[in-house]
Amino acid sequence: MSAGAARIQGLTMTALAEEFGTPLFVYDTDVLRDTYRRLRELLPETVDVFYSLKANPNISVCAFLGAQGAGAEVSSYAELVTALRAGVAPRDIIFLGPGKDPHELAACVDAGIHAVVCESLEELRRLDALVARRGTSEPCPVLLRVNPSFGTQGSGLAMGGKPRQFGIDEDAVRGAKETLARLSHLRVLGVHAYMGTRFLHHGDVVHNTAEILSLAEDLAGHLGVPLETVDFGGGLGVAYFDNEEDLDLDALGAGIRDTVGAFSARHPKCRLIMELGRFLTATAGTYVVRARYVKQSMGEWFVVADGGTNHHMAAVGIGSFVRRNFPVAHLDRPAEPTVRPYTLTGPLCTPNDVIAKRVALPEVRPGDLLGVARSGAYGPTASPGLFLSHGFPAEVMVHRGRARLVRERDTTEDLLAKQRLVDFGSAADRAATP
Ligand SMILES: *Cc1c(COP(=O)(O)O)cnc(C)c1O
User: Which end of the chain has fewer surrounding CB within 10 Å, N or C?
Assistant: First the structure.
């Protein structure tokens, strides 16, 4: 173990890799807490922060954020169960997603969550009928997810102003007054809109927030429903690539406080929700791999590691013409001078399994540990973990200087346990074959 090795809360990555094996995701609760608190401090009190489990559905990550005060935005039955078991109060949970099944809708009703975010008029009808059948006395609280007519700028993945499977088109909401009035088993609390992800400019987020709040006011007036909750999404990004810069949080806070302040003065009782995944968890996570081979091909240096895009598809840098790299560090000897560019690949049998291309690093030798920083969001959850049957990696959380396993590594037995072997070898089978 080298004295200069990278550390998390005093523990060396070298020691963590020895104890838990590689590939490995490591989450730092100090960073999780500081990120949450920083956001909390700059938002007005009327805004609740909900954690989107999609970014990292690990139950301990959810529980940690929940303990800091975050609610949960879930999009599947499993995520709902995760949030509840993580200790998030039902009143601080919302469920959204374009294709909820009846069993998921029923679970929302049973759990008594803050709101089901409905994404179509048909879904509203089905939920209304389901509540009627269950004979619950209370109407089920819902938010209308609106697909706004306006578009947005500055997002890596923009929503709004486009045909989408998400939400109800703004015009259709305007025309739904009678339909909604007939759905007596539902109570419309307000409006939800999500304008996209990876916003890195505060002006875009503030602009979206203002547009959504004004849309919500307008729709509520039009439909004649009180405005009890507005979820204005968020989509805050983190800088991954060297051409990006992190959000200016002070400017974001000032802009949101202005916008929200004016709205809350008109609607003092309205609960506002900002729902965020990436921003809350990305910077807290590191993907740790061990170099297996270091080789040259036609003048280029390759590090072939024990994990790759099967656990960290996002590092491929989808959507950009120029290949950009996530921040990569040599975890055993981070302070040594860089010697040459290395292309970091994984063990998959596909040329696309490239975690970073030509990234300058200190000398890498087989057995060395490398870390991809800012990897706490959309890692395993957004990756083809079953490719080549490697399975998903271990996940470890470092809290108060102590490392705990929060997800076991998949074993071969885990992977095979769900498969069924047909016996083609019996004599009877062979005889029956023409
Ligand atoms: C994916 C998603 C989120 C979380 O997005 P981040 O960019 O990770 O914050 C929030 N709301 C909705 C509707 C989403 O689809």
Answer: C
Q: Whose CA is nearest to atom 15 of ligand 1?
A: 194
Q: For residue 389, is it left (φ>0), alpha (ψ between -120 and 50) or beta?
A: left
**Is it the case that residue 228 has pLDDT exceeding 50?**
yes
Tens digit of pLDDT for each residue in 49-67?
A: 999 999 999 999 999 999 9
- Which is the closest atom of ligand 1 to the Cα of 279? 9
Mean pLDDT of the chain: 94
Give the CATH number for residue 380: 2.40.37.10
Q: Per the structure block, which two tokens stand in for 77? A: 């039955």
Q: How far is the CA of 362 from the centre of ligand 1 (A)?
A: 36
Q: Is the pTM of the predicted complex or chain greater than 0.90?
A: yes
Nearest atom in ligand 1 to the alpha carbon of residue 192 is 13
Q: Which two tokens stand for residue 344?
A: 């970091």
261 plus 317 within the same structural domain: no
Whether residues 258 and 297 share a domain: the answer is no
Residues 236 and 368 in one domain: no
Pair 270, 307 in one domain: no
* Spatial CA neighbour of 388 closest among 407, 415, 420: 415
- Ligand 1 centroid to Cα of residue 55, in Å, is 8
Token pair for 119: 């994404």
* CA of residue 372 to ligand 1 center, whole Å: 22
Ligand 1 atom at shortest distance from the alpha carbon of 117: 13
pLDDT at 189 over 90: yes
Has residue 72 been placed in a domain?
yes
The answer to whether the beta carbons of residues 35 and 377 sit under 8 Å apart is no
Name the domain count of the chain: 2
